[in-house]
Write a structure and sequence with these properties.
- This protein has a five-stranded parallel beta sheet with strand order 2-1-3-4-5, sandwiched between helices.
- The chain is 40% helix and 22% strand.
- Strand 11 and strand 12 form a beta hairpin.
- The chain contains eight helices and twelve strands.
- The longest helix has 16 residues.
- The protein folds into two domains: 116 residues, 3-Layer(aba) Sandwich (Rossmann fold), CATH 3.40.50.2300; 99 residues, Orthogonal Bundle (Arc Repressor Mutant, subunit A), CATH 1.10.10.10.
- By secondary structure, it is α/β, with parallel strands linked by helices.
Length: 224
Amino acid sequence: MNILIVEDDAGIAHFLQRGLRHHGLECDIALSGRAALTLLTSRNYDAMVLDRMMPVVDGMEVLRRKPGHVPVLMLSALGTLEDRIEGLDAGADDYLVKPFDIGEVIARLNAIGRRAKGTDRSDMLRAGDLEIVLTTFRAWRRGKPLHLNKKEFALLAELMRNAGRPVTRMMLIEAVWGYSFEPSTNIIESNMSRLRAKLTIHGDPDPIETARGFGYTLHADDAA
C-alpha cells in the first residue's frame, strides 16, 4: 500500500512513516493540508492518514476538497462521540483518537483498504435518469454530473440498490456509516438534505420520499 501521511507535527509524521515503512508500506509526508491537496492531485495513494487539527487548511477541509476517492483514517486529539461522528460524516472512513499505537494504525489502514476493494456490488447502477459508477465514485442525473461527497454518494447508492422499496434508517446507518446503533444526532437528515439539494439543483423533481421516523424510498419514475 502507498500511504499519504498528513500531519503538521513533523515528529509525529516521521514516527508514523517509520512505523508504516517497518511494516512494508510506502509513505509520503505532507506537513500541511495545502501540501496534501497538491500531492493528491499529482500522485495515486491507496489510503491517507489525516490529522484533523492543522492550521490554515485543516483535516476537515482536506476531506471536502480532496480529488477522487482515497480511503481516509483521521487522527485527532478530539475524541468525543460527537467529534468522531463529525469526522466520519465529513467523509473519513475511520477515526482514531490520539495518542495511538502504530499497530492499531496499520490494522485500521488494512481494514479500510479491504472495505474500499470490497464495496463494488456492480460497476454501475441506474435508476430512472440517475447513474452512478461505484468504482470511480461518479454520479450523474440526466447526463449532468453530480458533485457528491462520499457519504452523499453512499446514501444515493444504497437508495438506488433498493429503488422503489423503502430503506429504513437503520439500513442506511449500517450501509453508509457502519454503525450497529442509531446515533442521537441528525446525521442522516443532514446528509439526505444535501443529497436532495444536489439532485434537484437543475429544477428536477425530488425522487426521494420520506417516511417520517422510518426511512426513505427512491422512486425511479420520479428520476426519469
